[in-house]
Amino acid sequence: MSLQMMKKAVVSVAAGAAMFTAISASAVTFVPATPNNPYTFSGETRLETPLGDYVCGLSLTGNVSEDPSDSTKGTVIVTGGTVSGAFPCGLITLENLPWGYDGNGTLTSTGASVNLTNIGASAPFNLLDCDGDITVPFINNSTASSFDLEGANFGTCTFAGDGTTNQNVLFADPSNNIQFLP
After folding, report:
1. For the chain, what percent of residues have pLDDT higher than 70?
2. Which of 47, 98, 112, 134 measures 20 to 30 Å from 16, CA to CA?
3. What are the Cα distances from residue 111, in Å, to 14, 35, 141, 182?
4. How close are the terminal C-alpha atoms of the chain, in Å?
C-alpha cells in the first residue's frame, strides 16, 4: 500500500469516527427552543395501594432545562402538584418535593426517559403512604407531550390502569407544550 493510500485510509477512518461521535453525542433540543417554565402536566390516574384503588386527578408542575454539565441530557424537576377527585383523593398530599435532579432526562427515540427520585404521597388515617423512585417515559407530541405513569411503582403504590383510555398519562397543557428532541 502506498503512503498516499494509507493517508487517505487514515483520514477516512478519522472522519468516520468524528461523524459517529457527533451523531451519538448530540445535544438535547427543546421545542420551543427556550423552555417556557413552569410546565403543568395533568390527567386521571389510578393508584393501587394496600388499602384500595384510588382514581384521582393528578396535576404536576415543574421546570424543564438542559443539564448544566451534560448537553446530551435534559433535566425535569417537579416542583409542585395537586390531587383531586372523590374521597380520599382530596386528602392526598404530595411529599418530598421537588422531585428530580440535574440530568434525569435521557433522550429516547420518542422523547426521554425521566427519573424522579424520592417521590412521596400520603393521606390521613394511613389511607395512603407511598414513597420511592420511579422512571417514566416522556413522550413527544406537537400538540400535548405527556408522561406515562402506567406501571410505575413507588413503595407500596403502583399506577395501574383499568383499561380506561389515557389513564395514568399526564398531558401538557396544549397552550404551553414542550418537546425533548435529540
Report:
1. 86
2. 112
3. 31, 15, 9, 8
4. 41
3-state secondary structure 89-129: HHHCEEECCCECCCCCEEECCCEEEEEEEEEEEEEHHHCEE
- Closest-CA residue to 156 (of 122, 130, 127): 130
- Give the whole-angstrom CA distance, residue 89 versus residue 27: 40
Which residues fall within 8 angstroms of residue 34, CB to CB, at 6 or more apart? none
Residue 10 has what pLDDT? 32
pLDDT tens by residue, 7-27: 333 333 333 333 222 333 567
Phi/psi at 80 (5° precision): -170, 175
Residue 69 and residue 48: Cα distance in Å, rounded? 37
Residue 69: helix, strand or coil by DSSP? coil
C-alpha 20, offset from chain centre: 27
pTM for the model: 0.83
Task: Report the alpha-carbon distance of residue 28 to residue 65 in Å, rounded.
Answer: 9
Cα separation of 35 and 63, whole Å? 8
> How many Å apart are CA 112 and CA 109, to the nearest integer?
8
